[in-house]
Write a structure and sequence with these properties.
7-stranded parallel beta sheet; SDR family NAD(P)-dependent oxidoreductase
Length: 253
């Protein structure tokens, strides 16, 4: 798909991997809607790139429907959806205070897995009704998983399960949408320099980077965004999960 002039949605677009994806989409000529619960940060970025900011809670059907309507009114129907919204959290299954509270597990699953699915199903319903482009393509959906889906560490049961769910969703969703010319691809990033890691001491950041076979540094948001845009432009990429991790395999802890 040629990105110039296409309407794009980026959830979690106000910070981290999502924000850099917004910037690169805008540089490629796409009309970008920055969807985020943090509307102030979304508005700042939208002004920077000439896009629009839309407050959106991906776990709420009403919120997502409203966000899609606002974006559609401004830019037309979206053919590109980048799912970057998500949360972290680490807690052992059984700790000093007993078993992990069920609400801690449910919260992460609800945002990372169910919330992402919520956006996909509503955006895909609009994409599938669009007129086809070249090669009968109508849209592309990119999800953000994690290498934790494969190499979940101690304390990552909820997070790994949520990202593993996205990995498992990729192929069936691609197969569901193939008849409409809508592709689904997932990126599984390794250790990236995101706002969460920026809070760690410099020596800890360097230690984490040194654990990566090559390049021996934390991933850059620009590298994630570059892959996301390549996926959007490469029609042959579909139904696949791509590890973006410098050959990293996470140890148990």
């Amino acid at each position: 798909m040629q990105l110039q002039g296409q309407a794009a949605l980026v959830t979690g677009g106000a910070s981290g991997l999502g924000a850099e994806t917004v910037r690169q989409l805008a540089q490629a000529g796409a009309k970008v809607a920055v969807l985020d619960v943090n509307i102030a940060a979304a508005e700042t970025l939208a002004r920077e790139v000439g896009g629009i900011a839309v407050q959106c809670d991906i776990t709420s059907e009403a919120s997502v429907r409203e966000a899609l309507a606002v974006a559609r009114a401004a830019h037309g129907p979206a053919r590109i959806l980048m799912n970057c919204a998500g949360i972290g959290g680490a807690k052992r299954l059984v700790g000093r205070d007993g078993p992990m509270p069920l609400e801690d597990f449910s919260r992460i699953i609800n945002v990372n897995l169910i919330g992402t699915f919520n956006v996909i199903r509503l955006a895909a319903a609009e994409m599938t009704a669009l007129d086809p482009l070249e090669d009968n393509e109508r849209g592309v959906i990119v999800c953000t998983a994690s290498v934790a889906a494969y190499d979940g560490q101690v304390g990552q049961a909820a997070y790994a399960a949520s990202k593993g769910g996205l990995v498992s969703l990729t192929l069936p969703l691609a197969r569901d949408l193939a008849q409409f010319g809508v592709r689904v691809v997932t990126i599984a990033p390794g250790l990236f320099l995101t706002p969460l890691l920026y809070q760690l001491p410099e020596e800890v950041q360097q230690s984490l980077g040194a654990s990566i076979p090559f390049p021996k540094r934390l991933g850059k948001a620009a590298e994630f965004a570059s892959l996301a845009l390549h996926i959007a432009g490469n029609l042959a990429l579909n139904g696949e999960v791509i590890r973006l991790d410098g050959a990293l395999r996470l140890p148990p802890r």
